[in-house]
Amino acid sequence: MTIVKARKVGNSITVTLPKNLGVETGQEFLIEAGRNNVIMLVPKVPNPFNGLDDLHMDDDFEGVKLLDNEI
C-alpha cells in the first residue's frame, strides 16, 4: 500500500496517483465519499446507448400481428 499526501492547488485539494495504477491523463472518474471517510474513484465508462441512431425496435416486430386486446 502506497501512502500519498493531499496538497492544495488553487482552491482545490489534490491527491497524486502513483504511475503504477495506470491512470491516463484526462481519464474521468466518478468520485464518492463512503463510510469511514473512504474516498472511492470509479472510472467513468462511456454510455453504450450514445451514438446508436440506427437502433430501432420496429424492425424486430415487422410482420407481427396483434391479437384482439393487445393495443
Automatic annotation (TrEMBL):
One example GO MF annotation: DNA binding
Q: For the SpoVT-AbrB domain, which residue ranges apply?
A: 7-49
| Signal peptide location | none
Annotated InterPro entries: SpoVT-AbrB_dom, SpoVT-AbrB_sf
Q: Name one Pfam family in it.
A: MazE_antitoxin
- Please name the SMART domains in this protein's record: SpoVT_AbrB (SM00966)
Alphabetized NCBIfam families for the sequence: MazE_PemI_antitoxin (NF047400)
Write the protein's name. Answer: SpoVT-AbrB domain-containing protein
